[in-house]
C-alpha cells in the first residue's frame, strides 16, 4: 500500500510541471550519441509517449553522425569535420541521406509507433519545408546553413496529433539539387524557433557542458559560452550544440538544455523535477 501511495505522490509532484508545459511544443534533439542500446531507445520512446499523453507536443529532430561516419568508413570514403561540421561531398551526401532519412528516421518512427504513438517521419526535403544554402562550398561542400523553415508543415502535423520526427536534411533552391547536410543541433534550433517551441532539449553523451576539470556547468550565459569556446573548453561536437542553444533562445525559445541521453529517463527528470539535469543555457 505504501508503495502505491508513493506512486501517487510522484504523480502529484509532477503536476505543476505538467500544468506549465501542457499544450507547449518541446523540441527534442536526439543525438546519434544518445541512440545507443535497444534498452535506452525503449526508455526514450516511453518518455516521448508520456510527454505526449500529458498534452505536451513533442517534435523530434534526430542526428546520426556516428552511423554516417561508420558507413563512410565501411565504404572507405574519407570524411572530415571542420568546427564540428562534416565536409559533405556529393558522394558523402548520398550516404548522409541514406543513413539519416532512410535508416535512422524510419527506425525512430517505428520505435515510437510500436508504442502506439502517431509518429511521422519527414526531412526538410518534404514539401521543401527546410531550405538552405551552402555554408561555404569551397570549405564544406554540401553542408548547409538553413535559410528558411516553413513552420506550417510541422504545426499542421502537430495539430493533427502527430509527433513529427525530422531528419536534418534541407532542400536546395535549384531543380535536381542533391540537398544539404545540416548539423542536427542547428536544424533543431531553427525548427524550434520557427514553430514557437517553449523548450529545446539536446540529448547527448555527456552529463552536459563540462569545465576543464570535467565538472558539470549547470547554467551558462551567452558570455560564458563565448569564453569557453575561445579557450577551447568547448570544442568539437559541443560547438554547434551550444551555438544551437544560443540560436534558439535568441529566437524566442524560453529554455535550452543539454542533457545526458545515456541516463534513463533524463528528459522526464528535466521536464518534471525542479532540480532538472544537465546544462541550461540562458540569455
Ligand atoms: N566542454 C565540453 N563538455 C562536454 N562535452 C564536450 C565539451 N567539449 C567537447 N565536447 C564533446 O562533445 C561531444 C558531444 O557532441 P557530439 O559527439 O556531436 O554529440 P551528438 O551526437 O549528441 O550531437 C561530447 O561527447 C564531447 O566529446
Ligand atoms: C553538417 C553535419 O555535420 N551534419 C551531420 C548530420 C548528423 C548529425 O548532426 O548527427 P549528430 O547530432 O549525431 O552529431 C553529420 O553529417 O554528421
TrEMBL record:
Keywords: Amino-acid biosynthesis, Arginine biosynthesis, ATP-binding, Cytoplasm, Kinase, Nucleotide-binding, Transferase. The record marks 29, 241 as: Transition state stabilizer. It comes from the Bacteria. It comes from Sulfurimonas sediminis. GO terms for cellular component: cytoplasm. Pathway: Amino-acid biosynthesis; L-arginine biosynthesis; N(2)-acetyl-L-ornithine from L-glutamate: step 2/4. GO terms for biological process: L-arginine biosynthetic process via ornithine. It is an enzyme of class 2 (transferase). The keyword Protein biosynthesis does not apply. It catalyses: N-acetyl-L-glutamate + ATP = N-acetyl-L-glutamyl 5-phosphate + ADP. This is Acetylglutamate kinase. It is found in: Cytoplasm. Catalyzes the ATP-dependent phosphorylation of N-acetyl-L-glutamate. GO terms for molecular function: acetylglutamate kinase activity; ATP binding. Substrate binds at residues 64-65, 86, 181. Its EC number is 2.7.2.8. Residues 25-260 form the Aspartate/glutamate/uridylate kinase domain. HAMAP family: ArgB. Belongs to the acetylglutamate kinase family. ArgB subfamily.
Amino acid at each position: 500500500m505504501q508503495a502505491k501511495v508513493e506512486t501517487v505522490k510522484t504523480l502529484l509532484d509532477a503536476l505543476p510541471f505538467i500544468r506549465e508545459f501542457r499544450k507547449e511544443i518541446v523540441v527534442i534533439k536526439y543525438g546519434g550519441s544518445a541512440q545507443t542500446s535497444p534498452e535506452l531507445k525503449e526508455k526514450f520512446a516511453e518518455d516521448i509517449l508520456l510527454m505526449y499523453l500529458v498534452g505536451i507536443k513533442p517534435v523530434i529532430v534526430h542526428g546520426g553522425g556516428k552511423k554516417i561516419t561508420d558507413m563512410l568508413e565501411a565504404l572507405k570514403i574519407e570524411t572530415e569535420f571542420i568546427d564540428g561540421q562534416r565536409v559533405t561531398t556529393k558522394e558523402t551526401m548520398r550516404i548522409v541521406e541514406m543513413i539519416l532519412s532512410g535508416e535512422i528516421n524510419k527506425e525512430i518512427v517505428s520505435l515510437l509507433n510500436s508504442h502506439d504513438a502517431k509518429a511521422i517521419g519527414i526531412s526538410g526535403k518534404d514539401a521543401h519545408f527546410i531550405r538552405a544554402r551552402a555554408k561555404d562550398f569551397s570549405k564544406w561542400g554540401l553542408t548547409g546553413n538553413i535559410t528558411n523553415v516553413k513552420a506550417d508543415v510541422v504545426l499542421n502535423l502537430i495539430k493533427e496529433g502527430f509527433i513529427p520526427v525530422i531528419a536534418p536534411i534541407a532542400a536546395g533552391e535549384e531543380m535536381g539539387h542533391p540537398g544539404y547536410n545540416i548539423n542536427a543541433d542547428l536544424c533543431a534550433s531553427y525548427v524550434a524557433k520557427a514553430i514557437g517551441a517553449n523548450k529545446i532539449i539536446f540529448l547527448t553523451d555527456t552529463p552536459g557542458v563540462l569545465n576543464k576539470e570535467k565538472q558539470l556547468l549547470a547554467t551558462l550565459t551567452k558570455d560564458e559560452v563565448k569564453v569557453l569556446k575561445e579557450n577551447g573548453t568547448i570544442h568539437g561536437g559541443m560547438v554547434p550544440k551550444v551555438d544551437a542553444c544560443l540560436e534558439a533562445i535568441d529566437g524566442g525559445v524560453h529554455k535550452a538544455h543539454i542533457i545526458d541521453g545515456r541516463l534513463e529517463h533524463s528528459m522526464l527528470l528535466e521536464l518534471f523535477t525542479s532540480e532538472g539535469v544537465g546544462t541550461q543555457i540562458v540569455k
